[in-house]
Amino acid sequence: MKLGVAIGLAALLASACGDESGATDDDDGQASNSASNSSSQSSSAASGGGGASSSATTGGGGTTSSSSSSGGGETYAPPDLQNDVFVGHYLGDFEIVGYGSDDLGELPGSPMAPGDPGGHVLGIPDLGRVVLTLEGGDAIRVYAAGDLAEVGYSPLSTAYGPVSVAHDPLHDRLYVYCIGTAGDPENSALTVYDTSAEPWTEIAGSPFHIDVPANHIVVDPVSERLFGISLGKLWAVSVESDGVSHLPGSPIDIDGTGAGLDIDPARRRLYAGERLFGQAAQKLYAYDVDSWTQIAGSPLSLPGSAAGDVVADPVTGHVFMVDFGDTLLHAVAPEPFASLAACGGGCPIPTTETGLALDHELGRLFIAHIPDLNNPDQGHGFMSVWDVSAPATPTEITGPGTRPPLLTYPNRLTAM
After folding, report:
1. pTM check: above 0.90
2. Average pLDDT over residues 267-286
3. pLDDT, tens digit, for every residue of 145-192?
4. 183: closest CA among 166, 156, 161?
5. How far is CA 370 from CA 34, 279, 354, 375, in A?
6. Where do the DSSP E strands lie in 68-215?
C-alpha cells in the first residue's frame, strides 16, 4: 500500500484561483481509474462506539454504498482508499510532495510544482483525483493521484478566491467555497461541479451566492447539506438549483474562533473545534447532522490553549483534535461523547500543527508541523506519523525517515 502527501498554506496565506479549459484528459484519466476500481470491494470493521459496519463498491463517477446508519434516504460507507496522503508546502515557491506508506519514500511525480501558489488540497479516492485551490485567482487545478500529472481539462474556473473544497461521492458534486471580495462575506460564493464524468462541468446556477464566511467546509453525502466554519460562526445550508438556504438556526455564533471541522456521515455526526485563546481548555462540539442539534456531552472541554484541526474516523467513529498552542493530540469516543484521556491530558506532539489527515484503513494519523522555533538546527517543517489503531493510546511511529522533511510552511494534509 502506498501513502502520498500534499499540503497547502491556506491558514497562513489567502487562497484563490486562475482560468478554464475544456480539454479532456487522455492519460491516467478518471475513466481508467473507474475501470480499475469497478470490481467490488468490501470492508467491515468493529465499531469502537458508533457501531456501524459497512461495505462499499466504487467505480465510474460515484459511489454506491450500504451502511447501518442513514439519514435522508441515501446510505453511506467509508470509501476504499488508495492509501495516499498529499501535502502542499511553501518556502518561497509552492510544491506538492508524496511519500510511500511503507518506507516514506517519495512517490512518482513528487515533488510537483504547479507554477502557482496553492491553498487547500483535497484528495478524492473514488475518482483518483487531487484538487488544489490556487492562491490569488479564480480557479482550481486537478491532478491524477498516481503521478501528480495535471489532467487535460485543468484548471477549472471558480468564483474569486477559493478557500476550501468538499466532495459528495453519492451525488457526484464538488463544492468550492470562494471568498468573493476580500473581507466582505456578502460577496462570497459557492462554485459547484458535476464530477460524474470528465471533464468536470459546472452545474446550472453556479456560482451560488452565500452570505456567510468560511475557513473550511464539509459536505454530508446523505442529506447533501453543506457545513462551514469561520472565525466566529458555524453554519449549515442546503444548495438547490435556485440558490442556497440556511437550516433553521444557522448560522450559529461561537464564543471563540472556529478551528477544525469534520463529518462522520455514517453516524450522522458533525464535529467542530472552537479555539479559545488564553484559556486552559478548548471546546469540541458534536452535532446531529439530521436534527442540527448538539448531542449529549457537547461541547466537550479538552486541555489546551489553541484548538487546531479535527478529523473523524469513519470506521471506528473516534475523533482526533490537535491543540497547536500546547502541542497536544486528543482522542475522543463517539458514544458516549467523551475524551479518552489519551496520554493523560493529551499526547504531546513534536511542534505546532498545521495540518491533519487520517487513513482509516491503515489506522494512521498524519500531522504536518512547522519548524521547531526552539531548535535552530531545524530550518524546515516536517510530518509526523501516528498509529491510532488503539485510539486511547496514539503512538508516534519512529525510526529512520519517519519524520520526512517538508518546506517551512506546510498545511492542509489530505488522505485518500
Report:
1. no
2. 89
3. 889 999 999 999 999 889 899 999 999 999 999 987 655 556 799 999
4. 161
5. 37, 23, 7, 12
6. 85-91, 93-98, 118-124, 129-134, 139-144, 156-157, 162-168, 173-178, 189-194, 201-202, 208-209
